[in-house]
Specification:
Radius of gyration: 17 Å
Shape: globular
Distance between the termini: 44 Å
Strand order of the largest sheet: 1-2
Number of strands: 2
Structural class: mainly alpha
Strand content: under 5%
Number of helices: 3
Order of helices and strands: HEHHE
Length: 108
Amino acid sequence: MTPEAATLALWGAWLASWMVAAFWSSRTEKRSGLGTELFFRLLLAVGVILLFAIPRSAAPRAQVQLWRLGSALNWTMVALAIVGFSFTWWARIHLGPLWSDFGVTKKA
């Protein structure tokens, strides 16, 4: 497995688990404005499309690579991604049912 494949697998697992975990959140009593919510949902959709929907084989061959990292540093970056995902889950578990997805909301 390459570091790129490991990173994509981590993102996919995190995204799937994050969406499933939305079901244990408490009912929202008051939401932020519609414009704010749509903006963040649009950003999420664009991020998912950029990460998963563009096949690597469709990338232009004449792509300019700004830098090349060694194998050890690539795997260190995968480890940092794992630390970041672990932190998001720690925060979500700590907030429990009071967690909200895109902004500060009043929960029941």
